[in-house]
Amino acid sequence: MAEFTLDCLGEACPVPLMKTEKKLNELTVGDVLIISIDHSCAMKNVPEWARKQGHNVEIEEVDDGEWEIVIEKTK
Amino acid sequence: MKQFFIRLGENPIYKKLLKEPLTYIAGAVLLAVFQIAHFSSLGSGWGVTSTFANWGAWIFEALGGDVSNWVYFSGEKAQKALESSFLADGGSIRNLGIIVGALAATLFASQFKFKKLKSLRQAVAAILGGLLMGYGARMAGGCNIGALFTGISSFSLSGWIFGAFLLAGAFIGSKLLAKYFM
Q1: Cys bridge to B125: B57, B139, B154, B181, which one at CB 3.0-4.6 A?
Q2: Which sign, positive or negative, has the C-alpha torsion B117, A34, A18, A37?
Q3: B 13-72 near A (Cβ less than 8 A)
Q4: Could you tell me if B163 and B181 are in contact, meaning their C-beta atoms sit under 8 angstroms apart?
Q5: A58 and A69 in contact (C-beta within 8 Å)?
Q6: B122 to A10: CB separation less than 8 angstroms, yes or no
Q7: CA pair distance B139, A52, nearest whole angstrom
Q8: Chain A residues with CB within 8 Å of chain B CB
Q9: Residue A48 belongs to what H/E stretch?
Q10: Other beta carbons within 10 Å of B135
Q11: For chain A, which residues make up each domain, given as ranges?
C-alpha cells in the first residue's frame, strides 16, 4: 500500500499517458500513484485510460491549470 | 467581488459549459456544423497551415528576401495571398481566431498557466516535431484539418489516404518519442 508520485508538469500529450502506463506497470495492487499534470488534454485521457483498465481514479484541481490524478491500482 | 467569482466558479452550469471539456461527440458535431458554415459562406473548406506558409513568406520578404520566383508561390492563388496583408487575409484572421479563442477558453475555465520547459531535450523534441509537422503539411498540401478533415468531409479519396499515412506517422512518431525522449 505504498504511495508513488509522478511529475508530468510541463509535459504534453501523449507523454503523461505513456509515463503513467509505464509507472503503473511497476506498482503492485493496492499501491497509489499521484500524477501531477498541467496539460488539460492529459486530464481527460489519463483518467479515461485508467478507468478503462479498471483502476480507481480521482482528479483534483490543485491550482489554475494544474491537476493531480490519483490512481489506485486495483489489479 | 471575489465572493461572486468563487460562487460563479461553483455554479453547475458554468462548470459544465466553460470548465469541463466537451464530450468527443459534442466536439465532433460542433466541428461539422462550423465546417458546413465555413464551406457555405466562403466557398472553400477549412484549412490552417497554408496560411503559415504565407506568414513565413511575409516575414522572409520583410527581412529583404524574395519569394516571387519560388515554385510554391507561382500559382495565381498564392500570388494573391502574398499581395494581401495580415488583416485582409481571411486565413490569417481565422488562425488568429483559433489562438485568441483558445486563450479565452482557458481563461474562462480559469486554467491559464505558463508552463515550464522541463529539459533541453523536451525543447529539442518540440522544435523538431514542429519543423517536421510544418514541412510534412506543406509537402502533403495540408494538415489534419485541410487535408484530412476537409478532404474527407468533401468526399475526397485523398483525405482517407492522408489519414492512413497520418496513422502510420503517428505510430512511428510515438515509438521514437518513447525511445528517445522519455
Answers
A1: B181
A2: negative
A3: 21
A4: no
A5: yes
A6: yes
A7: 38
A8: 9-11, 14-15, 18-19, 38-40, 43-44, 63-66
A9: helix A42-52
A10: 10
A11: 3-72
Name the active-site residue from A5, A6, A8, A13.
Answer: A13
Predicted confidence (pLDDT) per residue in A1-56, tens digit:
789 999 999 888 889 999 999 999 999 999 999 999 999 889 889 999 999 999 99
The residue-averaged pLDDT of A64-74 equals 93
Residue A46 identity (one-letter amino acid): V
From A75, A28, A22, select the one nearest A53 (Cα to Cα). A75
Q: Determine the distance in angstroms separating the CA of A55 from the nearest CA of chain B, rounded to an integer.
A: 21
Q: Before B21, cis peptide (omega within 30)? A: no
Q: What is the pLDDT of residue B77?
A: 83
CATH 3.30.110.40 given to domain A3-72? yes
| Whether B21 and A44 lie within 8 Å, measured CB to CB | yes
B43 phi, psi to nearest 5 deg: 80, 10
Residue B109 identity: A
Q: Which residues of A are less than 8 Å from B174 in CB distance?
A: 14, 18
